Amino acid sequence: MLIDTHCHLDAAEFNSDRDIVALEAKDAGVEKIVMPAVERDNFQTVIDLAHQYSHCYMALGIHPMYVDKAHPSDLTSLKQLVAEQLAHKDPKIVAIGEIGLDFFVTQQNREIQEYFFIEQLKIAQTFELPVVLHVRRAIDDVLKQLRRHPVLGGIAHAFNGSPQQAEKLIELGFKLGFGGAMTYTRALKIRELAQNLPLEAIVLETDAPDIAPEWVGSKGRNSPTELIKIAQVFADLRGIEVSQIIEITSKNSLEILPKLASLCTPLKVLH
Questions:
Q1: Nearest to 221, CA basis, from 5, 7, 4, 1
Q2: N or C: which end of the chain has fewer CB within 10 A?
Q3: Predicted confidence (pLDDT) at residue 269 exceeds the cutoff of 50
Q4: CATH 3.20.20.140 is the classification of domain 2-268
Q5: Quick check: 243 and 234 in contact, CB under 8 A?
């Protein structure tokens, strides 16, 4: 079973053919898709899509690149929606996310980024949910806050840190997300990480419509359907069969997202 642990199926880029993309992904073997929210304005869209598509699940949170237009009241709304979804007769919320820090573009709003990150870690603690992390040029700062506000682990999406930082995240109960960036032959650092990090610490993702793999091109639209080919690249880097990669990364995903595991019968298809 292939699991796309990070896909923005709610994005405007899919407005014209979202149903087709969702169906094609499922037909291609992507049996589970996790959709993280990025701001209050798209919470309900993500919720609706998670309930519309049987193989889609959600994470709710405020992305660090959206905090400038966020308000503290958005955190109250987030908390209320998480509570409502967990109480739903068919709960499909599996994490708090996409949350974190992004100091790649600017650090001028560092204080507000840290405020929203810390408050959302507290929400994850309250509801005993893992988190989906966005971390860019800020891994050490994220690690500091995770130590201060420990959560039930989660996924460091699009990991691009050092082996030492990877080890620290793993020690805190996190899996590391790899996707399209790994497919570029010039991405030597990411490919080396994919080759050498413990297999039990890695999950697969697309981040569709972003971070398109090499065969789509950096300006092309990524899709969850690409996950099978991304898995093949990963298998080639590790020198093992793609079936093993699918089995191991799916097991890893279900381990780190226990509510996702509880909503399916994964152990029957893992050997």
A1: 7
A2: C
A3: no
A4: yes
A5: no
- The string of pLDDT tens digits covering residues 97-128 is 999 999 998 899 999 999 999 999 999 999 99
CB 78, CB 60: distance < 8 Å: yes
CB within 8 A of 126, min separation 6: which ones? 79
Cα–Cα distance for residue pair 174/96, rounded to 1 Å: 14
Residue spans per domain, the chain:
2-268
What's residue 42's pLDDT? Answer: 97
Residues 241-246 have a mean pLDDT of: 98
* Pairing, β 56-60 against β 202-204: unpaired
With H, G, I as helix, E, B as strand and everything else as coil, classify residue 60.
Answer: strand
Nearby residues of 28 by Cβ (< 8 Å), 6 or more positions away: 2, 225, 227, 228
Q: Write the pLDDT tens digit of every residue in 181-213.
A: 999 999 999 999 999 999 999 999 999 999 999
pLDDT tens digit sequence for 19-31: 999 999 999 999 9
Whole-angstrom Cα distance, residue 176 to residue 120?
Answer: 20
How many C-beta atoms surround the C-beta of residue 259 within 10 A? 18
Assess contact for 6 and 157: CB atoms under 8 A.
Answer: yes
Respond yes or no on whether the N-terminal peptide bond of residue 98 is cis (omega within 30° of 0).
yes
**Does the structure show a pLDDT above 70 at 172?**
yes
H-helix segments, the chain: 18-27, 43-52, 72-87, 110-127, 139-148, 163-171, 188-196, 227-238, 242-256, 258-262
